[in-house]
From TrEMBL:
Protein name: NADH-ubiquinone oxidoreductase chain 4L
A cellular component annotation (GO) from this entry: transmembrane transporter complex
Subcellular location per the Swiss-Prot or TrEMBL entry: Mitochondrion inner membrane; Mitochondrion membrane
Function: Core subunit of the mitochondrial membrane respiratory chain NADH dehydrogenase (Complex I) which catalyzes electron transfer from NADH through the respiratory chain, using ubiquinone as an electron acceptor. Part of the enzyme membrane arm which is embedded in the lipid bilayer and involved in proton translocation.
InterPro entries reported for this sequence: NADH_UbQ_OxRdtase_chain4L/K (IPR001133), NUOK/Mnh_C1-like (IPR039428)
Similarity comment: Belongs to the complex I subunit 4L family.
Organism: Apolemichthys griffisi
TM ranges: 6-22, 29-49, 61-82
GO terms for MF: NADH dehydrogenase (ubiquinone) activity; oxidoreductase activity, acting on NAD(P)H
Pfam families: Oxidored_q2 (PF00420)
Amino acid sequence: MTPAHFTFSSAFMLGLTGLAFHRTHLLSALLCLEGMMLSLFIAMSLWTLQLDATAFSPSPMLLLAFSACEASAGLALLVATARTHGTDRLQSLNLLQC
């Protein structure tokens, strides 16, 4: 395992464990998701550079565009949750309530 592969794998796993174990606020969950997407973007960019394949070169930009859409949807949900419930704590949200 190369040091770069280990670094991006550990960054992804840290984001995943942060998402799994520290789910108190919606903002922290969104930040963990963004960290995971950033590590995937950098790993995919380095992968296309190492393979020297031009066929895979649009893939990191497509992943970055999807992560920007995910971030904007997450922030819209955060604002809507903060306006309706008054907080972004995940324990105060009830999925059965309309």
